[in-house]
């Protein structure tokens, strides 16, 4: 684990998916014990949207859907989790010296989009649609896949099976392009 006085694991380009899975699974324990919530990410975007809406219209805090996400500490914890994931990914990429193209060539081939502005619009639109789906489904992939299945929730098991089926179908469709 230690190499020439440095922690070798922090400079690796990738970690074992098994070790990372165990660590993520073990995060469920403090999540439930300390903040009485499961791991998940999509609700943090609702928390952020509620606070931004509240800046422009203080009455937004009176909307039941927003109020729920603005008054519970578990949603702040999930927001901190999402910020930590982004920061951790950035620091890991820097520590390991990982650099990759800003845009996958397969996406350029598939969409014909080359400009940064168009890529950002496409990314925002895709993320927005994904987030709407996550909120309709009552949680995101991490919420259902990690937390829901850890609690043996039938709905989460169905959601994860559906996600895998959709992923397989899309990969087959992309393979033909």
Structural notes for this entry:
- The chain has 177 residues and is mainly α.
- The chain is 71% helix and 2% strand.
- Strands 1-2 form a two-stranded antiparallel ribbon.
- Helix 3 (42-56) crosses helix 4 (64-71).
How many β-strand stretches? 2
Principal-axes geometry comes out as globular
Indicate the radius of gyration in whole angstroms. 19 Å
Strand content: under 5%
The residue ranges in which pLDDT falls below 50 over 5 or more consecutive positions are: 1-5
Order of helices and strands: EEHHHHHHHHH
- The side-by-side strand order for the widest beta sheet comes to 1-2
Mean pLDDT across the residues is 82
Spell out the key features of this protein:
2 strands, two-stranded antiparallel ribbon, mainly alpha, 177 residues, disordered N terminus, 9 helices
Give a brief outline of the structure.
With 177 residues, the protein is mainly alpha-helical. The protein has helices at residues 17-26, 28-35, 42-56, 64-71, 73-96, 105-111, 116-136, 141-150, 154-175; strands at 2-3, 6-7.
SSE blueprint:
Blueprint: E1 2-3, E2 6-7, H1 17-26, H2 28-35, H3 42-56, H4 64-71, H5 73-96, H6 105-111, H7 116-136, H8 141-150, H9 154-175
Antiparallel strand pairs: 1-2
């Amino acid at each position: 684990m230690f190499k020439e006085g440095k922690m070798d694991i922090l400079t690796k380009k990738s970690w074992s998916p098994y070790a990372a899975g165990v660590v993520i699974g073990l995060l469920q324990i403090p999540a439930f014990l300390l903040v009485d919530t499961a791991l998940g990410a999509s609700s943090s975007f609702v928390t952020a949207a509620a606070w931004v809406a509240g800046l422009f219209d203080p009455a937004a805090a009176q909307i039941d859907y927003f109020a729920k996400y603005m008054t519970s500490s578990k949603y702040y914890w999930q927001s901190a989790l999402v910020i930590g994931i982004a920061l951790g990914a950035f620091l890991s990429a820097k520590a390991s010296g990982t650099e990759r193209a800003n845009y996958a060539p397969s996406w350029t081939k598939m969409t014909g989009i080359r400009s940064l502005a168009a890529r950002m619009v496409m990314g925002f639109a895709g993320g927005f649609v994904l987030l709407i789906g996550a909120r309709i489904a009552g949680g995101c992939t991490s919420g259902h896949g990690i937390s829901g299945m850890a609690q043996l929730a039938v709905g989460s098991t169905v959601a994860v099976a559906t996600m895998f089926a959709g992923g397989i179908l899309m990969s087959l469709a992309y393979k033909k392009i």
